[in-house]
Structures are given as structure tokens and as C-alpha cells.
Write a structure and sequence with these properties.
heterodimer, A: 3 domains, 15 helices, B: 491 residues, alpha/beta, Amidase signature (AS) enzymes, globular
């Protein structure tokens, strides 16, 4: 069902396009040798170029260009072998040159596609309009001094990728799914860490509403939203605001707005009339950026397997459901962990264990995939003990908890605790006989037609055997003795 | 014969023969600066102690080996080149107290070669001007006088301090920068030689920017040979300037002794502007005759878009300047005039820090880049620029170099201030096209006006063919035998 918002005049469709600013992972800044590392003492990572000193000139950092190209390739987008840097002119205290170097007319990456998955499993392609490289500005702090603003230029000049989507997004859910998918791709590529709290990923959200089937109406841009949850809230809050205006006979004005998470509403930042005239023109300090086809091809060869491809391969190679594969590829480290467990083993069993007991243990212990509660090799060894019938699945859960607790290898735990599965049919038969004898009344009920009691007998036998009986053999023996 | 009669080549020989020490040479020049600069105002910041210190180092190098032809040579540095620890003002109040913690690439190369810096030379504010009247540190006076007159004359600009210092012999050579004629026009006005190299030949790193796509450092000196010596050191690829050219630098002095015999020299019809001073036209004819006599083949050529050069230049250069000068905002360095809020601080700082000509160009530049005007002005000007480049490319299929006058007139008086800035802009009419095309162009002193003021001829060459420019300029120099000296000079 398409997402709509109900108004007095009927259903409204929401139209959203996102401009995502993703900070490039690189050692140094886009046009200077200063460190691009996050944090540090204020103004510790600033070169004379970043601070806009007289006579300083920008020199392009090739690694940032490579990162943008990798990202473009990951978004299945057109790589423009010719692109150009422009100056976007405006005055602000944390913009040392009085202009930002960006790409206006000729971006490095053109049209691409991101496929998102919705809660009901539907897949939907969201178009990418373009990706371009630009410099970040510094940071102004207005709360550090009673009368002065404090400027930190550590981020001034750090490379950003602005990734612009087509207005293909139709709901808060789709906006959230798009951002999560984009972040996942960036992290797989290693081109942006996707950390929204530190501001290395932030979104400008363009929202408009319309009656289904109409052309687009006027949009508003909500600037700098810094969490996926806030983006989803902002879309809805802004759409509701616009619906109210239209339904009151008003006109939505194109403007830039801010989202206030505390109040759950957007408010005007500046109207179209106050919009800056950025006076874009080609930066005469930089030559056009011309890429060699071979260089791009080499970057393409060096790309990691991306989530969509990995997911498809997991389904095919390990025979696991599409949904499970999606969970496993959500993060690259988890996918790697899973593959190490699954390689040469039963892929489904491995998927169940990783997404079940292993994830639960990770949450419970507060550990991460980088420092897992149980190593992939140890979990694999546990699965081997199940497969070769040394232990059964129920006992395996106990062994796993012991592994989390002590870090001991599963085989050692099995031996120490005598948990080896009993496959001796004589011992099983004896246990069954004892249980049936002790529950003669229930046997009678069973024989009178209460089939459900079968599970009770199996459970009692397993209990009698301290859980170590081979479940299949126990089943068989119970069935045989009940006649 | 005094030390002030020595050229760079001559001084280098004397230094190497230990006939004179670098310290003696520097001391003599320091004294000359002290004596004449109060009158000429060619230097904003003389650096006599630094000069002596560098001269002592030069003497050690001259004694110990490893000296270059510039070791111990006292020069003036246009105050647009950032010099580590030495105030660099761009002749603007807004940078009046700015001491760079870094060195421009060109000044660093000269320093490394052992040149001795006498001081920072005056210029038009941010190199915007053709008169040196726009300097916040006062105008430079040309050392030349009209016959029988005492009127103070302009040295031209923007490298007017450099030109006056070399002409008055209070520097043996100087650095300049040329955006639309800022080396060539003052060289012509003061009877010295100066070359604007191919765009990209000299690094712009550390040079305070005026118009980045046009700015190009170059030397100014008494003769063609000294220019070749200076340029050989100043040139070369610099990874810190993305627009600098990764090309080998020839020894330009090798080109001086080549013959012009068989070279094809173009004479562009479009430079014969209506109303041009007949003296200038006569000098041009004389130059043509000299080259023909040396065996060069003279060809009439056409550079059809010449007349659009000046308007295109006065759109592109201010457009870039309006953006380049945005960094002077009072926040991080230079002048700050406190205000009630950030906008007020910007407005007060820039209102007080910039002079009238700079403000005029920032306004023009902001206007031509504005939404709705960009296509009509900036984009159109860029198209004209491409056509002008094509004019030259086409012409250089036919000829090896082009000969024109450098400026439409001889120097004007400091008091003959033009009320109309457009008239001032006309000074650049012959120099701007080569700047727009990025080709090398040199001014050589070739004669005197009836009033006794120097006039220059301009030689324009192909991209990165400064060698042919030097060959032709040297031939003109030999033929012209220009030996006149200004009335005000060190002796």
C-alpha cells in the first residue's frame, strides 16, 4: 500500500529527495596536506591553505578523487572523466576563503541507482542524480564566550561527497531505508564511515506534497538533519505542515527550514528572497579534473563485493533465505564472520546460529563483531560437533553459553561436562522403558487417542538422559515402544 | 664607472673575480635606497639588514663554490610575493601588518640562488592599476623627467616600485607580476626590460592573488640578458601550484645570441588603433625596420578579436578578484575593524581596508558573476578569451613572434590623474591580449619620446617559447642601443 497522509480533502502523497553530505575517509584534506582526522584540539589540523592565507593555493588530493569514483561505482553511476571545480561564494566566519570549492556544473559522478528494501520485503530503486566533491567548512561555536564566537577550522577543507537523490522517495520509511542503504554501501566501500553522531553523514531533506497523480508542488529544504530517525520525523512533520497550508487555501513557499527534534517540527531558516547568490564560477586555481579510463577501471577492479551482490551470493551459495541474507550482509564485518562460520559447513545452520544465539550473546555481553563473544572458528567447531552428532542442538546451546562464559573450545567443554550425545540404542531403549513404566496413566491416555502426549514422552526421556540423547533415535525408540 | 653601472651579468663577473664583495655591493645599494627611496617611494619596506645578512652568506658561497649567476645580486621584491618574516602588504591597508610565516616559491628560488633582497617594492594596491597611484603606501615617483620639466611622473603599474627601483638603480633587478600588463607597461615607462612569461612558467604559490587565471610572476631588469638570468631561476614546476607547468626550464641566456635571420615576425593590423600617438607608431616602424635589417621576415597579420580584449579582461580579472579578495575579512589576519556583529565587522574592515580602485573592481566582479548577469558578462568574456587565444594560435602558424608597441603613450604625470578610470584602463590595450592568451611577452626599451621619456616595444611569442622572445628582444636591444638614463638615479 502506498503511503499517504490523510487531509480534509483526501489523501496526500509525500515526495522526498535527499542531499546527503558524506565525509570522505582520507588521511588529508581535499586540497591541503592537513590531517582530515576527526577531533583533535581546536585548530590543530589547519594548514595555511585551509585558513585562506594570502597566496595559498589548493592542490587536489588524489585519494579523495579515488574515493568519490569508488562511491560512484558503488552507486552503479556514470563516472564523468571530465569534471571541474567551481567556487561557491559567500561570507561566513568559518569559511576562510569566502568561498567553498565545490563542483557545480560538472560533477565527478552522474546518474546512478540505489535499491532499497521496505518492511514488507518490496524492493524499490531510488535514482541518484549526481555526486560531487566539495570542501567542508569550519565550525563556529557561539556558546564559549559571552560576546565572541569561537572558530575551529579543523574540518575546514575536509572532503565531502554530496550525493543527491532523485525525488523518488515517497514516505518516511523509504527515506530511512534509503539512508540506511546508502550508509551501508559507503561503509562497504570504505569511503565514508557513515557516523551521523560525529556529523560525517548528514542530510538535507527536500519535501513536498501532492495529490496522487499530480505534478510536483513547491518543495522546502530541511537543512542538516543528523539522524535517520530525525529525517523520518522531519519528512512527516514537514509534509503535515504543507498539507495544512494547502488545505487552508494557502501556498507553500519555497524556503530553507530547520528541524527541531525537541518540538518535532520544522521552522523557517530563510526564504527564497533571502537565498544567497553564490556567484558560482570555475575555480581558476585548479585545472579541470580529467580521469584516465584505465585508472577508473583499476578502481573498479579493486572494489569490494557490495551488499546486494553479497546477499544474492549468500542465498545461492549457502541456500539461506533472502531475508536472513539481508540481515547477515547489513554490516560487512558480520557478513565476513558468517562466511567464516559457514564455509564448508551447513549454511542454514550457520545462519541460524549467527543471527540467533550469537547475536543474542553479542547484545547481552555488549561486545561487538570486532571483538566477538565467541570467535568464528570456535562457533564453526561447535557446529561441527552438531553435524557429526557428537552433541545435539539442545546441548549445543548449553555448550555455546559455556563458550561465551569461559572462552573454552567446545570440544573441551563437551568432554569436561560429559555432554557427548548418547547414540547407544540400548541405553535409549532402557530409558524409554523406564519413562513409559513410570507414566502408565499417560500411556493409556495416549493409546486412547491423545496423540499430543508423544512429545511429553520424548521430553521425559531426554530429561532422564540429561538432554544427551540423540533426538532422532529417542523419537524412534519412543514410537517403537508405544507400538 | 660605479658599481651602479654594473648589470647582473657584469656584477656576477666582478663578484666571482672578487673585485667586489657581495657585502660591498649590498651596502652600496642599501645606501642608495636610503638616499633615494624617500623621494621615489619605490620600496614599501626596505630590508637593509636582511640584505647584508644575505650578502654575507653570498660572500661565503662565492668563496666556497656553488655560486650561481645571481649569488650576491641585490634585487627588489614586489610586495605581492610573500616573504617569510618580512611584512607583505600587497600595498593595501588591509594587509598593512601582515608578516607571512611562509615564502613564495619564486622568492624562495631567488633566495636559494643567493640573490640578496633589498626590500619589498611598492605597487598598485593588490596589483590593480597601471600607474602605481592606488598604493595605500603612496604613489611611486618615476625617476624620469620630461625635458626641461619638473613634473613628477608615474612609473606605470602595477609593478611601479619594481620598475622605478631598477630604473633609478636602487635595485639591480626586481620581481614583478603581470596580470594585464603590470610588468611590461611600467618597464616601458621607465626604460627597462621586463618579461611576462607564459602562464604557468613561474609558480603563483605565495603570490597574493589578483586574478588567478592571468597572474604571472616575471623579472624586470636593465636589459634583456639580466631578464634571462632572472627568469632561468624564477621558472619551474611547482607541485604547490596546480596551474604551474611541468616542463623543463631552458637556460634562457642561450637564446640571446641567436640570429633573427629567417624568423618570421608578425605585425598585427589591429594594434594600429585610431588616434594612437604618432611617436608610438614611428617607434613601431623603426622596430620593424631593425628586425628586417637583421634578416627577419616581416609579415602583416591579423588578430581580429583584439578590440574585445580590453572589455573581456575588465570582466574576467575583476570577477576573479572579487572572489580572491573575499578572504580579507578581518577574521584571521590583517586589518580588523571591530563591529557590532559579524556582518558589521566585515563591512567596517573592508570599507577601511580596501582603497577605491580595489572596491571598484570587487563591485564590478561581483556584478558580472551575479545571477542573471553571469551569461551576459562572465561567460561572454570567457568566449572572447577563447577567440583571442585562437587569434594567437592561428597567427603563430604563420609567424614565430609578434611585434607591437608596449603602451599607447609614454609615462603620464602623477598629477595628471585621470578622473575616468576607463581612460586609465586603456593603458593596457596592447598588453592585455597576450595575458588573456597566456603567451609570453616582453617589453624592451627602444627609444625616447620627443619629451625625452622612454618608449618600449613588445615582443610576443608562442606558449613556452620565451627563447624566441628573448632572441627577438635581444636583437631589438642591440639595434636600439638604448642608453638614456633617468634624471634621478644612484651614481
Amino acid at each position: 500500500m502506498a503511503y499517504t497522509l490523510a487531509g480534509r480533502s483526501g489523501a496526500w502523497e509525500v515526495v522526498v529527495g535527499l542531499e546527503v553530505h558524506a565525509q570522505v575517509i582520507s588521511v588529508s584534506k581535499l586540497f591541503s596536506g592537513a590531517s582530515a582526522a576527526y577531533g583533535g584540539e581546536p585548530n590543530a589540523h589547519v594548514s595555511f591553505v585551509d585558513a585562506g592565507f594570502p597566496g595559498m593555493l589548493p592542490v587536489i588530493n588524489q585519494e579523495c578523487v579515488a574515493q568519490a569514483v569508488r562511491t560512484g561505482l558503488g552507486l552503479k553511476a556514470q563516472i564523468n572523466l571530465f569534471s571541474r571545480f567551481d567556487r561557491k561564494n559567500y561570507f561566513y566566519a568559518d569559511l576562510p576563503n569566502g568561498y567553498q570549492i565545490s563542483q557545480f556544473a560538472h560533477p565527478i559522478v552522474g546518474k546512478g541507482i540505489v535499491e532499497i528494501e521496505l518492511a514488507d520485503g518490496t524492493l524499490k530503486p531510488i535514482g541518484i542524480t549526481r555526486l560531487h566533491l566539495e570542501q567542508d567548512a569550519g565550525k563556529s561555536m557561539h556558546d564559549q564566550h559571552p560576546t565572541k564566537s569561537i572558530i575551529d577550522l579543523n574540518r575546514a577543507g575536509v572532503a565531502l561527497m554530496e550525493i543527491v537523490s532523485e525525488p523518488d522517495i515517497r514516505s518516511p520509511e523509504e527515506a530511512g531505508a534509503y539512508l540506511r542503504k546508502l550508509r551501508q554501501i559507503l561503509r562497504y566501500l570504505g569511503t565514508c564511515d557513515g557516523n551521523m553522531e560525529e556529523g560525517s553523514l548528514r542530510a538535507d531533506v527536500n519535501v513536498s506534497v501532492r495529490k496522487p497523480g499530480e505534478a510536483f508542488r513547491t518543495r522546502c529544504e530541511i537543512k542538516n538533519v543528523n539522524s535517520i530517525r530525525f529525517v523520518m520525523h522531519a519528512v512527516e512533520a514537514e509534509a503535515l505542515r504543507q498539507i495544512e497550508i494547502w488545505e487552508d487555501g494557502g501556498e507553500v513557499e519555497q524556503e530553507t527550514r530547520l528541524y527541531d527534534p525537541a518540538r518535532g517540527e520544522t521552522r523557517s531558516m530563510r526564504s527564497k528572497e533571502d537565498a544567497h547568490d553564490y556567484r558560482y564560477f570555475p575555480d581558476p586555481d585548479l585545472l579541470p579534473l580529467v580521469l584516465e579510463e584505465d585508472w577508473v577501471a583499476a578502481l573498479k577492479r579493486g572494489l569490494p563485493e557490495l551488499p546486494d551482490e553479497k546477499r544474492a551470493r549468500f542465498c545461492a551459495e549457502y541456500g539461506i533465505p533472502f531475508y536472513d541474507a539481508g540481515v547477515l550482509v547489513a554490516e560487512q564485518e558480520v557478513a565476513d564472520f558468517y562466511e567464516e562460520v559457514a564455509r564448508g559447513r551447513d549454511g542454514k545452520l550457520a545462519a541460524n546460529w549467527v543471527t540467533g544465539d550469537f547475536f543474542a550473546a553479542m547484545n547481552r555481553t555488549g561486545k561487538s563483531i570486532a571483538d566477538p563473544p565467541v570467535s568464528a572458528a570456535a562457533l564453526g567447531a561447535l557446529l561441527d560437533l552438531i553435524t557429526d552428532k557428537t552433541i545435539n542442538g539442545r546441548i549445543a546451546k548449553d555448550v555455546f553459553e559455556e563458550m561465551v562464559e569461559t572462552g573454552k573450545p567446545p570440544a573441551e567443554i563437551v568432554v569436561e561436562k560429559g555432554l557427548r550425545q548418547v547414540t547407544d540404542t540400548g541405553a535409549i531403549d532402557a530409558a524409554v522403558t523406564r519413562v513409559l513404566a513410570a507414566n502408565a496413566d499417560k500411556v493409556a491416555e495416549y493409546k486412547a487417542g491423545k496423540d499430543k502426549l508423544f512429545g511429553f514422552f520424548v521430553g521425559q526421556v531426554m530429561k532422564a538422559m540429561q538432554g544427551k540423547g540423540n533426538p532422532a533415535l529417542v523419537n524412534e525408540a519412543v514410537k517403537k515402544q508405544l507400538g | 664607472m660605479s658599481v651602479f653601472d654594473l648589470t647582473i651579468a657584469g656584477a656576477a663577473r666582478a663578484l666571482r673575480a672578487r673585485e667586489i664583495s657581495a657585502v660591498e655591493l649590498a651596502a652600496a645599494y642599501n645606501a642608495a635606497v636610503e638616499a633615494l627611496n624617500p623621494r621615489l617611494n619605490a620600496y614599501i619596506t626596505p630590508t637593509p639588514e636582511l640584505a647584508l645578512e644575505q650578502a654575507r652568506a653570498a660572500d661565503r658561497r662565492l668563496a666556497g663554490g656553488g655560486a650561481t649567476p645571481l649569488t650576491g645580486i641585490p634585487i627588489a621584491m614586489k610586495d605581492l610575493f610573500c616573504t617569510e618574516g618580512v611584512r607583505t602588504t600587497a600595498a593595501s591597508k588591509i594587509l598593512g601588518n601582515f608578516v607571512p610565516p611562509y615564502e613564495s616559491t619564486v622568492s624562495a628560488r631567488l633566495k636559494a640562488a643567493g640573490a640578496v633582497m633589498l626590500g619589498k617594492a611598492n605597487l598598485d594596491e593588490f596589483a590593480m592599476g597601471s600607474s602605481n597611484l592606488t598604493s595605500a603606501f603612496g604613489p611611486v615617483e618615476s625617476p624620469w623627467k620630461r625635458h626641461g620639466a619638473e613634473a613628477r611622473l608615474a612609473p606605470g603599474g602595477s609593478s611601479g616600485g619594481s620598475a622605478a627601483a631598477v630604473a633609478a638603480r636602487i635595485a639591480l633587478a626586481a620581481t614583478g607580476t603581470d596580470t594585464g600588463g603590470s610588468i611590461r607597461q611600467p618597464a616601458a615607462f621607465t626604460g627597462i626590460a621586463g618579461i611576462k612569461p607564459t602562464y604557468g612558467r613561474c609558480s603563483r604559490f605565495g603570490v597574493v592573488a589578483f586574478a588567478s587565471s592571468l597572474d604571472q610572476p616575471g623579472p624586470m631588469a636593465r636589459n634583456v640578458e639580466d631578464n634571462a638570468l632572472m627568469l632561468s631561476v624564477m621558472s619551474g614546476f611547482d607541485e604547490k601550484d596546480s596551474t604551474s607547468a611541468d616542463r623543463a626550464v631552458p637556460d634562457f641566456t642561450q637564446a640571446l645570441h641567436r640570429s633573427v635571420k629567417g624568423l618570421k615576425i608578425g605585425v598585427p593590423a589591429e594594434y594600429r588603433l585610431e588616434g594612437t600617438n604618432p611617436e608610438i607608431l614611428a617607434l613601431w616602424e623603426q622596430g620593424i625596420a631593425w628586425l628586417r635589417a637583421e634578416g627577419a621576415e616581416i609579415r602583416d597579420i591579423s588578430l581580429p578579436h583584439t578590440k574585445y580584449g580590453l572589455p573581456a579582461y575588465y570582466i574576467i580579472a575583476p570577477a576573479e578578484a572579487s572572489s580572491n579578495l573575499a578572504r580579507y575579512d578581518g577574521v584571521r589576519y590583517g586589518l580588523r575593524v571591530e563591529g557590532e556583529d559579524l556582518i558589521d565587522l566585515y563591512e567596517r574592515t573592508r570599507a577601511e581596508g580596501f582603497g577605491a580602485e580595489v572596491k571598484r573592481r570587487i563591485l564590478i566582479g561581483t556584478y558580472v558573476l551575479s545571477h542573471g548577469y553571469y551569461d551576459a558578462y562572465y561567460l561572454k568574456a570567457q568566449k572572447i578569451r577563447s577567440l583571442i587565444l585562437r587569434d594567437f594560435t592561428d597567427a603563430f602558424m604563420e609567424v614565430d613572434a609578434i611585434l607591437t608597441p608596449t603602451a599607447p603613450s609614454a609615462a603620464f604625470g602623477l598629477d595628471e590623474t585621470m578622473t575616468d578610470p576607463l581612460t586609465m584602463y586603456l593603458n593596457d590595450v596592447f598588453t592585455v591580449p597576450a595575458s588573456l592568451a597566456g603567451v609570453p611577452a616582453m617589453s624592451v626599451p627602444a627609444g625616447l619620446s620627443a619629451a625625452g621619456l622612454p618608449l618600449g616595444l613588445q615582443v610576443i611569442g608562442r606558449h613556452f617559447d620565451e627563447e624566441t622572445v628573448f632572441t627577438v628582444a635581444a636583437a631589438l636591444e642591440r639595434a636600439a642601443q638604448f642608453s638614456a638614463l633617468p634624471q634621478v638615479r644612484a651614481e
